[in-house]
TrEMBL record:
Top-rank taxon, per record: Bacteria
SUPFAM superfamilies: lambda repressor-like DNA-binding domains (SSF47413)
All residue ranges annotated as the HTH cro/C1-type domain in the record: 19-72
Organism annotation: Streptomyces tremellae
Identification of the protein by name: Helix-turn-helix transcriptional regulator
Gene3D superfamilies (UniProt xref): lambda repressor-like DNA-binding domains (1.10.260.40)
Listed Pfam families: DUF5753, HTH_31
Database matches in InterPro entries: Cro/C1-type_HTH (IPR001387), DUF5753 (IPR043917), Lambda_DNA-bd_dom_sf (IPR010982)
Length: 292
């Protein structure tokens, strides 16, 4: 088993988290699991904390001991292959089954989520009708039942905004073009804008619009992205390294190298500085709703 640290740590951390959850669900201690697998306890610990890459055959052995079903085993074996990649691209459509998404797990664990979106309302803030319009457009020919399932996944994610325990701080900077593009028609879009107004009144959510009058700003250069930061442990250290997620047309880009995080930190700070304040954003959202 390789201990290489090249490439993104995201797949390793995600794989370790899933394997730990499987072990706990099977009611096995680290010692018991190590004994059955004929490994050392430190090896199990390094795997579960995402410190090492893992062979797919090792994952298969762990899944067998933990009683995982065939689909989950296949997904985790695909994820194990990603832990050895030096690049950042993870095409989760071909090696990881639908719904077994790296991003959702990271989003759930994050303490702070900072978005810049240039074209569309982010999934966490979408109404059901707006989400369905986008998902249907992006999946031509897919049966209605599957479309409905994907919409439900997106809506279910939104529960984290108002969860009672440790709801994350969410900062969303929207290019004004997002407001002006009537996705799904005027009725759906006006409902979506009203939803943004309502969410912007939550204590842990801040939506800001970067107006056209801001001219050239950092978001035009960076493109859309999500920056995720995670809670600190008892020793004051981050439980997970900060991660930036960039969605592409055929895959997703996860960045967690310090110099990359620093560059996106600076970009988001500049974008936020170019955005309207809370009151002016709310006013613009309401005005755009009336115009629709």
């Amino acid at each position: 088993m390789s201990g290489a640290t090249t490439g993104s740590t995201v797949p390793r951390r995600q794989l370790g988290r899933h394997l730990r959850d499987l072990r706990n669900a099977s009611r096995l201690t680290v010692r018991a699991a190590a004994k059955q697998l004929e490994w050392s306890e430190p090896k199990i610990w390094r795997i579960e904390t995402g410190q090492v890459s893992l062979r797919s055959l090792d994952v298969e052995a762990m899944c067998k001991v933990y009683g995982a079903d065939a689909e989950l085993t296949k997904g985790l074996m695909g994820l194990a292959k990603e832990t050895k990649n030096r690049g950042w691209w993870h095409s989760y459509g071909d090696v990881i089954p639908e719904g077994f998404d790296l991003y959702i797990g990271l989003e759930e664990a994050a303490e702070r989520l900072s978005w810049y979106s240039s074209e569309l309302v982010p999934g966490l803030l979408q109404t059901r009708a707006y989400a369905e319009t986008l998902i249907r457009e992006d999946n031509p020919g897919v049966p209605d039942e599957e479309i409905a399932r994907r919409v439900e996944v997106r809506i279910a994610r939104q529960a984290l905004l108002t969860r009672v325990t440790a709801a994350p701080t969410v900062e969303v900077a929207l290019n004004e073009a997002v407001l002006r593009r009537p996705v799904g028609g005027s009725t759906i879009m006006s409902e979506q804008l009203q939803r943004l107004v309502e969410l912007n009144e939550l204590d842990n959510v801040a939506v800001r619009v970067v107006p056209f009058s801001a001219g050239l700003h950092a978001g035009i250069m960076s493109g859309p992205f999500v920056r995720m930061r995670f809670p600190a442990n008892g020793g004051g250290r981050d439980t997970e390294p900060p991660t930036v997620y960039v969605e592409g047309f055929t895959g997703a880009l996860y960045l967690d190298k310090p110099h990359e995080i620093d560059r996106y930190d600076r970009a988001f700070t500049a974008i936020w500085g170019a955005a309207l304040n809370h009151e002016d954003t709310q006013s613009l959202l309401r005005r755009a709703t009336r115009e629709l």
